[in-house]
Specification:
Layout (H helix, E strand, L loop, with lengths): L1 H14 L3 E5 L15 H5 L4 E3 L4 H13 L3 E5 L10 H8 L2 H4 L9 E6 L14 H5 L5 E3 L4 H13 L4 E6 L39 E4 L4 E5 L3 H12 L3 E5 L2 E3 L3 H11 L2 E8 L4 H13 L8 E5 L9 H4 L3 H13 L1
Parallel strand pairs: 1-2, 1-3, 3-4, 4-6, 5-6, 8-9, 8-11, 11-12
Antiparallel strand pairs: 5-10, 7-9
Length: 332
């Protein structure tokens, strides 16, 4: 996924001189996860450069650039550090088109790693997507595989409004094979790890159906897509697993079609439970599929605590917890 994300930025920087990348350590060092490695050398110091440690400043610069015709890609080193930039993102970038009556837009992409599974502790493991899906004018996207990562990022860079592009850091180098916590799937020889060279797009608001089934629908995104796949496979359950990919805009049509077919729904995300994005998904499924449901909708999520370091695997919603959730839905 690291290579796919880097390729997307390289493609757009090569195509469009208005595209530039900046953030903490993204230049000479190539980013803490190496997603921007080689971009400064290839495209120059003025197209890929380091910034001070000031997330509010990074976002303010990006908005000014975007309003004046550039297409900045601003990296926030970890999603846990995005809060100082929250006001700039929500009050300025997301509202610029509306408050200027279309005179200005903010065609900027905000890249940031999210989630746990790498022993990052409470300040390097958060999943704050729900805080941003509440904001009108801002798109929120989270890929689960290399193919989608490149296509979605190209689409984000080409969008004329701001896009928050969340990158599950546990998937940067592939799901961990056979570790008993996340999944037994490896990127090795996986079709979704085959990434074409050059330009291609993956459109927003279109979920990917990872597996086809009729026993229940599992709604997931990011790392949790592969946790869901592992749990269903280990149980021998035929599940419709929908990788949402785009949280805002949301592909509610595909969700409705699947839940009306299966009659059962499990929602899975890594973020804390209370006011998490799963609550919004539950509400929309309840509103549109109530008379087709054969059991209560269920959620498997992180706990309502700061992300622990020593007890990370008690927090992380792994296959054991997901299998328990699947059983509850099937027996409900």
């Amino acid at each position: 996924m690291i290579e796919a994300i880097r390729s997307a930025m390289d493609v757009k920087m090569s195509e469009d001189p208005n595209v530039l990348v900046f953030g903490e350590d993204v230049g000479y060092f190539g980013g803490v996860f190496r997603c921007t490695a080689g971009l400064q050398e290839k495209h120059g110091l003025h197209r890929c450069f380091d910034t001070p440690i000031s997330e509010g400043g990074i976002m303010g610069i990006a908005i000014g650039m975007a309003a004046n015709g550039l297409r900045p890609i601003a990296e926030i080193q970890f999603a846990d550090y995005i809060y100082p930039a929250y006001d700039q993102i929500c009050s300025e970038a997301a509202r610029l088109r509306h408050r200027s009556n279309g005179e200005f837009t903010a065609p900027l992409t905000i890249r940031t790693p999210v989630g746990g599974g790498i022993y990052g502790g409470q300040t390097h493991s958060q999943s704050p997507e729900a805080l941003f899906t509440h904001i009108s004018g801002l798109k929120t996207v989270i890929p689960s595989n290399p193919y989608d990562a490149k296509g979605l990022l190209i689409t984000a860079i080409e969008d004329n409004d701001p896009v928050l592009f969340l990158e599950p850091k546990r998937l940067y180098n592939g799901p961990f094979e056979g570790d008993g916590h996340a999944t037994a799937v490896s990127w090795a020889d996986h079709p979704l790890a085959e990434v074409p060279e050059g330009h291609y797009r993956v459109e927003f608001e279109k979920a990917r159906k990872l597996t086809e089934g009729d026993q229940l629908t599992i709604l997931a995104y990011g790392t949790m897509v592969w946790v869901a796949e592992a749990a269903a496979r280990e149980m021998g359950v035929n599940a419709d697993i929908l990788d949402l990919r785009s949280l805002l805009p949301l592909d509610i049509e595909s969700i409705e079609e699947s839940v009306k077919k299966t009659g059962r729904c499990l929602i899975l995300h890594e973020a804390t439970k209370t006011s998490g994005f799963g609550a919004e998904l539950m509400a929309q499924v309840q509103e549109s599929c109530f008379y087709h449901l054969e059991a209560p909708i269920n959620r498997v999520t992180g706990w309502d605590t700061p992300y622990p370091h020593a007890q990370e695997w008690a927090y992380f919603p792994g296959p054991i917890r997901v299998k328990r959730g699947i059983r509850e839905v099937l027996e409900g």
